[in-house]
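Take our chain:
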Amino acid sequence: MAVHAIIGGTGLTQLEGLTLKEERLFDTPYGAPSAPVLSGEYAGRDVLFLARHGHPHRIAPHQVNYRANLWALKQAGAGAIIAINAVGGIHAAMGTGHLCVAHQIIDYTWGREHTYFAGDIEHVTHVDFSYPYDEALRGKLNAALQVLGYPHSSHGVYGATQGPRLESVAEIVRMERDGCDIVGMTGMPEAALARELDLPYACLALVVNPAAGKSSGIITMAEIEEALAGGIDKVKQVLAHVLVA
């Protein structure tokens, strides 16, 4: 059975309940990953865990070394990756606390190291990215959400923005027009790099705030932190169900 790797985002820099067996900081050809790769047991299964922003949360979305993170997980023996992302809700159904298993992504980021096929290499490989997320892994996430009875969407288009600032109202209007349902800052190039490494990858997104212009007030960190506190326990329950399935 493939070892699942979990990439923890904002609000999940530690995986409580993980029985730690090994902590290893990999030296990759692309530099140091955000944090050591933790190897241990969770919900009775062997797992790997990596904090995308480091622990404590210290690395901004546009400064995450995505190439090193994915490479380190591959080196550690990951056979599949579940990425946890805190996002804003654009579509009316994506209210605070809602969980979404994204099925598509639009990349609005710029200037990030987004491929392994760069520099002095023997050949360039053009990976197919028609369907960014692994359908089998998405199915497991959706099945777990169904069993647990958590409000969720089985599909959603993730709009990946540069950050670290939040978006303007006009930008969200544009993204909604483009077909985005949720907005976050870490979905790319992570998904594409996983594809280049031939690692099945899926995203479980937790909505922590209405996107700009989708509520009557401004977005505050207090609002986001409150939503994270209430939602991360649900995320961990979903992960446990997926691992034992």
